[in-house]
Design a protein that fits this description.
- The structure is a single chain.
- The protein is an alpha/beta fold and 304 residues long.
- It folds into 2 domains: 171 residues, 3-Layer(aba) Sandwich (Rossmann fold); 110 residues, K homology (KH) domain (GMP Synthetase, Chain A, domain 3, 2-Layer Sandwich), CATH 3.30.300.20.
- Strands 2-3-1-4-5-6 form a 6-stranded mixed sheet, sandwiched between helices.
- Strand 2 and strand 3 form a beta hairpin.
- Helix 6 crosses helix 9.
- The chain starts with a strand and ends with a helix.
- Bound molecules: guanosine-5'-triphosphate and magnesium ion.
- Guanosine-5'-triphosphate (GTP) binds next to helix 1.
């Protein structure tokens, strides 16, 4: 039997569900998710391997009108991931009208010349009639309202419930040629552990954050150590630095008596212990660093 493999990029506006879909395709959480736009800031690879195929799926930052250097860089990362892959999946939301942002991204996808699939996500959040109407409009004349130009396939699904995801996987695999194992069978992501730790802590910190705060937070692991306890248990200890842009934000992140930061840290730790299969210790400090989003040297240091 032939083994098929290849690379697929997920693109779309912020918040359409790209990271959720990556996690569902891979079957493990590799990318953080939030209901705030512009959560993903770097390209993240997820890997799904079966007996007959390997899909390397690239999660990208949502493409948006940039207001900071960080925004410019994240957009560029998404654009870079459009070429040099076998398939591009453009995600839109079933429960929201198509807007200028979607049309802009669709034009970029078509320009790339890469075989493309239009994924209509969040079908669980709207009714069947609306989904069918959306699909009919998408397949209509290219310049008609509701069309995004011509895609090789249209797949309605729910990244959240998994409904329809097998259909997308089949569409992707059918466009792959015979190929190698790009990653060993047990690998699900290319990210180092320290990146996952920083991202999960950021996810917990932005989960109940309001207004601009989610955008102002950056998390980095500055130090890592593997310790053995007296009883012989291994503990993975990470020193995390949370950056915010203003003093007032520092207070909000830490919370009254440190409660908020503690709760976020605990929640991240529990999830990390499950994912890494080891005991985890997080040691976290919060620093104010005005304009970290606008300064190239800061972004370089943060790997952003
Ligand atoms: N109802 C519903 N919600 C979903 C679905 N997929 C994702 N979401 C929600 O949509 C929000 C955004 O999901 P993400 O996966 O973070 O979106 P994203 O496209 O990666 O966003 P950026 O990283 O900001 O570009 C979260 O609140 C998800 O829980 C879905 O199939 N159904
Ligand atoms: Mg994302």
């Amino acid at each position: 039997m032939t083994f098929r493999s290849g690379f697929v990029t997920l693109v779309g506006r912020p918040n359409v569900g790209k990271s959720t879909l990556v996690n569902t395709i891979v079957g493990r959480k590799v990318a953080i998710v939030s209901d705030r736009p512009q959560t993903t800031r770097t390209e993240i690879r997820g890997v799904r391997t079966t007996a007959t195929s390997q899909i390397v799926v690239l999660d990208t930052p949502g493409i948006h009108k940039p207001r900071t250097l960080l925004g410019e860089r994240t957009n560029q990362r998404a654009l870079d991931a459009l070429g040099s892959v076998d398939v591009v999946c453009m995600l839109i939301e079933a429960n929201r009208p198509i807007g200028p942002g979607d049309r802009h991204i669709a034009a970029l996808v078509h320009e790339s010349g890469t075989p493309s699939i239009c994924v209509v996500n969040k079908v669980d959040a709207t009714d069947r009639g609306a989904i069918i109407e959306r699909l009919v409009a998408l397949g209509g004349p290219i310049d008609a309202e509701g069309s995004l130009g011509s895609f090789a396939a249209y797949v309605p699904l729910s990244a959240k419930t998994g409904d329809g995801v097998d259909g997308l996987i089949a569409e992707i695999e059918s466009r792959f040629d015979e190929g190698p194992h790009y990653y060993p069978d047990d690998v699900v992501t290319d990210q180092p552990e320290t990146f996952l730790v920083a991202e999960l802590l950021r996810e917990k910190l932005i989960a109940d954050a309001r207004d601009e705060l989610p955008h102002s937070i950056a998390v980095m692991v500055e130090d890592f150590e593997e310790r053995t306890t007296k009883t012989g248990d291994i503990v993975l200890a990470f020193r995390c630095v949370v950056r915010v842009e203003r003093d007032s934000q520092k207070g909000i992140v830490i919370g009254h008596g440190g409660e908020r930061l503690k709760a976020a840290g605990q929640s991240a730790r529990h999830e990390l212990e499950r994912l890494l299969g080891a005991r985890v210790h997080l040691d976290t400090v919060v620093r104010v660093d005005p304009d970290w989003q606008r300064r190239a040297n800061r972004l370089d240091r943060l790997g952003l």
